[in-house]
Amino acid sequence: MRMRLKKHLEERIDDCGNMLVAREGSLFYTLTDEQKTQKLPLQEIFGNNNPLYVELGCGKGAFAIKSAKLHPDRNYIAMERLSNVIVVGCEDAHRENITNLRFINGHAENLRYWLDDKSVTEIILNFSCPFPKKTYANRRMTSEKYLEVYKHLLTDDGIIRQKTDDLAFFEWSMESYKAHGYEVFDVTYDLPLGGDNVTTEYEEKFRSLGKKIYACKARPIK
Questions:
Q1: What three-state secondary structure class fits 83?
Q2: What pLDDT, on a 0 to 100 scale, did the predictor assign at position 3?
Q3: Measured on CA atoms in the order 13, 103, 126, 172, is the torsion positive or negative?
């Protein structure tokens, strides 16, 4: 069932100022590659050359907002395909005047139309949909088509950071990394609180239910 658009969605997005820096739009897939390519001027947007961290599937933006506040020396881009959802993050970030965070409304497979190769220090995958049916495996954010996109975007020392509550998806992801030219490290089957772990709303919910959180990092093999 298709989600109904929120009332006054376009007006709400417009009221967020410059928080939403890119959006696919309804005609995106009718455009040529040249027309789709609109590289973001990151230095102009953020006013600096700080490292770029990209969260894919950011939902309402709570993790990105929390992370941007904790790390003012980093720039963040939070990406979400659903306009109805991302507008909440844009509004909250705009209200709090968070200058080192911006949003993209679109699909992760299209990131290279907006971001330059070797521009991303870290790609963050928080509780991505596991798509448990085998026929949907190519939709997983750790499937081959996405891993190829990440390889281009990551800096020479860039990494992917993944968290999930789904053990089957976690183990599938680690095999996918290895099969497609990535080294997997810092693997844990019970991620503790604290340290550099910024929790998400999903994570807090799962922890309250007694579920374990699985986490790892991955980087392309040179």
A1: helix
A2: 46
A3: positive
* pLDDT value of position 195: 85
Model pLDDT, residue 7: 67
Cα separation, 53 vs 101, whole angstroms: 9
Alpha helices (H) in the chain, listed in sequence order: 9-14, 33-36, 42-46, 62-70, 83-95, 144-153, 167-179, 201-208
The CB density around residue 141, as the number of other CB atoms within 10 Å, is: 25
pLDDT per residue over 141-189, tens digit each? 999 999 999 999 999 999 999 999 999 999 999 999 999 999 999 999 9
For 9-220, CATH number?
Answer: 3.40.50.150
Please report the pLDDT score of residue 1 as a whole number.
38
Residues in contact with 77: Cβ distance below 8 Å, sequence separation at least 6, in sequence order: 21, 52, 53, 54, 55, 101, 102, 103, 104, 115
What is the 8-class DSSP label of residue 26?
T
Bridge partners of 105, per DSSP, are: 23, 80
Cα separation values, 94 from 49, 79, 167, Å:
21, 16, 36
What stretches in the chain show pLDDT beneath 50?
A: 1-3
Contacts of 196 (CB under 8 A, 6+ apart): none
Q: Are 103 and 91 in contact (CB under 8 A)?
A: no
Tokens of 211: 């579920």
Closest by alpha carbon to 49, among 75, 20, 76?
A: 75
| 3-class SS of residue 218 | strand
Residue type, 111: L
